[in-house]
Predict the 3D structure of the following.
Amino acid sequence: MKYRHIKKLALLAAIILSGMASHFSGGINSYYLQIIIFIGINVTLAVSLNLINGYTGQFSLGHAGFMAIGAYVSAYLSTEHSAVLFKALGTNFFSITLLFVAVLMAGGVAASIAGLIVGVPSLRLKGDYLAIVTLGFGEIIRVVIQNTDAVGGPRGYSGIASYTTLFWTYSVAALTIYVVISLIDSTYGRGFLTVRDDEVAAEAVGINTTRYKVTAFVLGAFFAGVAGGLYAHSTTYINPSGFDFQRSIEIVIMVILGGMGSTVGVAFAAILLTLLLEYLRFVAGYEWLPELVRRIAQNRVIIYSLVLIALMLLRPQGLFGRLPRRGIPIGGSTKSAKLPANST
Amino acid sequence: MSATEFFQQLINGLSLGAFYALIALGYTMVYGVLRFINFAHGDVFMIGAFCGYYLTPRLLPHFTGWMTPLGPVAVLILTMVICALLGITIEKLAYRPLRQQPKLTVLITAIGVSLFLEYGGQFVFGADPKSFPELMPDRALPGTGALTITTTQLAAFIVTICLLIALTFIVKRTRLGMAMRAVSNNAAAAALMGVNIDTIVSFTFGLGSALAGAGGILYSLSYPSIDPLMGLFPGIKAFVAAVLGGIGNIPGAAVGGIILGVIETFVAGSAFSTYRDAIAFSLLIVILLFRPAGIFGRSQIEKV
């Protein structure tokens, strides 16, 4: 059997499995169910960010912004504009499914338009500048939402219908993984890797680097938007401060831990980190542990930061990643020398 | 907006800009020498504010009588020393081992260091905001008519200007400053001429962090509620100021800081006050799109 058939079969199997799991999920404790859904959402977010950060090499720190757009657009549509649809079709399984797919798509499309807007300046920026600009975009999106009264402003937006199930979460996650893997494996998709590895060489052999960068942002943002929609319809309450810089960092850490440019690794890291952070809540409650350990467990960002620093010092390629082809020393030119040398 | 209001806002903007300028200088100097953005710089500013918080009640009682005015100066200097040591330590432990690694690795480490300082700070100092002790009496200066200039604003101006003069002197007139400029211009050639790159990098980090620490103290005088996450936004905004002035350019950072402070204060006083935090980012995007080299920077041609 050919590789691409295996991928399609795996996707189909994943969707059927998540449908079955969803059907039998009634007995699961709702707290565990919520965590399992968060894992699926985080996998989608991390894999989609990996397309931008890992495969295309455009370090983005604003993924939570795209997620916020998807969450708010889909929540707004499903809460305020669902009455028309339900009046026409009646409130039944079919109309709810139709509505949910439509609002998720709308959230994804809205986020990908934002991705297009962020992607365009990224053509002129590199590395740390791009990181700060995407961070800035994420914050601008948050500030704009905070000032939009129609979605509750700083008070948050509540009363969202709880449509997200295991089926939707894991179908989206499987679809995201499938799309990203297929894209990167395709002849077209090799272009993303060349943009990351050597932009000048890529341009020299006739690759439209501009288009690849924008495509990566638009696609990555689309899936982040859909993930945001799933998140909104799972928690039923969203708040602009839930999509801040720290949320973006969380997704970035998943990508870095898994290894930039390794879809499997990144998905694995998303599962691992989500579970670990939930587990830390329990650790913080264990009476027999020393007070210090419990307090550190409560403050999860300290652990994030230590993981990041240790990873960069010891294994910068992440758990599953491969080392880049060549290193550019800090303060150095692309002609890497032992000494930091500047290009001017 | 009346003329009085306008000048009042201008004064408030200038004093806010002074803090941004102090932090931006550290970004610009480190960028000049190492070509990388020290994400953790804003958090050194936060540590500076907390140094002031803990040092003030311990140091001020020792300065009585004619020595009273020296108390705040002692707090400021000690804070600057502590922050300088912190900056040098961060560079040694986290950034130096990665100097030959890709830029992205260092950037991620810097984000890690920044998060560590912020949330480690929450762990050590507590997450709740603290009120900064009164380092010096905060009064409106007499004789300024309808305008209000406070003593802390005046002190911030004076200290900022003194520090800028001292910095200019160090960079332009001393051997270390000359070595710094040489490394910034061409590190490989500087190394061949016998400049010890590691020393210069440490020195640059120390200098930048000391300025950030001073900025932390001055900021807390005007905005006395301090918390471990306070460095994030001033840090990022100061970075915008550095880019605005032309990153790597020392006078540019000072001017960029002042411009950003004034713009932000005017926006905060207008109908769009809730968009205040978005202004700096919008400005950054506009500069990077239309004049990426900043006001004073020269655009560089990348050689392949």
